[in-house]
Amino acid sequence: MNSSLVRAARSIAHPRRPNIDGGLPARSASTLAETLESQVPAKRLALAELKKNHGSKVIGKVTIDQLIGGARGVKCMLWETSNLDAEEGIRFRGLTIPECQQVLPTFSGKAGDGEPLLESIIWLLLTSEVPTKAQVDGLTAELHERSSKLPKHVVPLLNSLPRDMHPMTQFSIGLNAAQTASVFAKAYADGVPKNEYHKFALEDILNVFAVIPEIAATIYRNVYFDGIVKKDQTLDYSGNFCRMLGYDDPSFDELMRLYLCIHTDHEGGNASAHTTHLVGSTLSDPYLSYAAGLNALAGPLHGLANQEVLKWIQALQEKFAKEGKEVNADTITEFAWETLNAKKVVPGYGHAVLRKTDPRYTCQREFGLKHMPDDPLFKIVDTIYSVMPGVLKEHGKVANPYPNVDSHSGVLLWHYGFTQYQYYTVLFGVSRAVGGLSQLYWDRALGLALERPKSHTPEWLENFAKNNPDA
Ligand code: CMX
């Protein structure tokens, strides 16, 4: 591991304030809860200062187009854990994906030797610090221990659901049902003071992280196999999740680590993160807040796009097999135009914010080049990548003709025999919990307000336009 890069990354992710004598404070806090608690007073103070000194500054204007068009670009949310740049893509607490891959602890213990552990990203997103391996190991053990907090009625409830109910619907039901264990809801009902909410929210957040692999794996094993879920808590979070799903291949464990890390967070405005934040702002507990986020993720314009990509590729393969044509750049182009002319979207392409290839796509492509360069489906995805931006540019409607994260995730899973693509969004959902709920911790710690933007009727807008011709 390159130690100067780790130091640099630590200072990007978490610029430490000098002590009065000019030295840097020691990184002494050992558990996640202690580390967070030690950060709360300074963060509260910083936000209060920001509000006091700059609260009335104007940071943007809103047009009627934006009001009608899904609030694109409207600056109206505070989000701690990540930032999305249209050109560069995501940074988790200041770190790009390649930087995370270089500095965050991995399964072997050596940063840079394999994919980061999800526990490393949990630590980074919550605390803004690059954790040590010992801190990450402590968190792994804590999450394994907390996994016993799944209420006993949840698995029987999941077992009773119809097999043909979409896995995302089952996931949402499972997490909502687990809400009976909410420590936050009980504390609120008991009247704990507002400045203590975050402590109880953190209990729920860590418990949600700990129990969702079992909810998710139970759904997978029920819908497609024998319903039996076997844990291996000698492994990390992702490795154990793979065993629960029924996969026992170190290379697949690495894919799952990568997959779970890169899907965690994509700043605040995306539908799943925003929904979690919005519902949480009513002081719904973290279980209910994230279950709402899952329902947003289940939409085909958002997380469901990863299953749609596989469906699209299969339809393409079927069509050209029937016609006795091979799948190549020409036939893919033909199929893309058929999709666009039928007024349908090409799944896995385009983005509401990004204007370049999604770095989450790029790192999955690199994983494919390393682990499965000759896989036929991987090659098709690569050929799609070589022609689709050109097709979409020629079509002329799409703001971003480049692939997003969902364009690549399915093909990697497929390579390992994980072909049940209706389930893919559940994996996204296991990961997105980390971003949405890490932010929810800070929402409660910073006492963020109930979210309640203003809406207007069409008549109001028309009158406004009439009375303000120069607006
Ligand atoms: N195929 C065809 N048309 C597309 C398109 C695509 N991949 N992406 C955008 N368009 C269309 C839009 O539907 C819109 O058409 P209308 O004017 O008729 O409504 C027009 O191009 C302009 O849209 P945009 O400004 O480029 O994109 P938006 O911000 O409105 O939407 C997104 C963003 C992701 C919903 C859109 O690109 C899309 O539908 N992509 C395909 C689905 C997908 O991959 N979603 C996953 C996104 C990542 C995630 O959240 O998981």
From TrEMBL:
InterPro entries: Citrate_synth-like_lrg_a-sub, Citrate_synth-like_sm_a-sub, Citrate_synthase, Citrate_synthase_AS, Citrate_synthase_euk, Citrate_synthase_sf. SUPFAM superfamilies: Citrate synthase (SSF48256). Belongs to the citrate synthase family. Residues 1-26 are annotated as: Disordered. It comes from the Eukaryota. It comes from Stephanodiscus triporus. It holds the Pfam family Citrate_synt. Keywords: Transferase. The active site is at H302, H351, D406. One of its GO terms (molecular function) is transferase activity. PANTHER family: CITRATE SYNTHASE, CITRATE SYNTHASE, MITOCHONDRIAL. This is Citrate synthase.
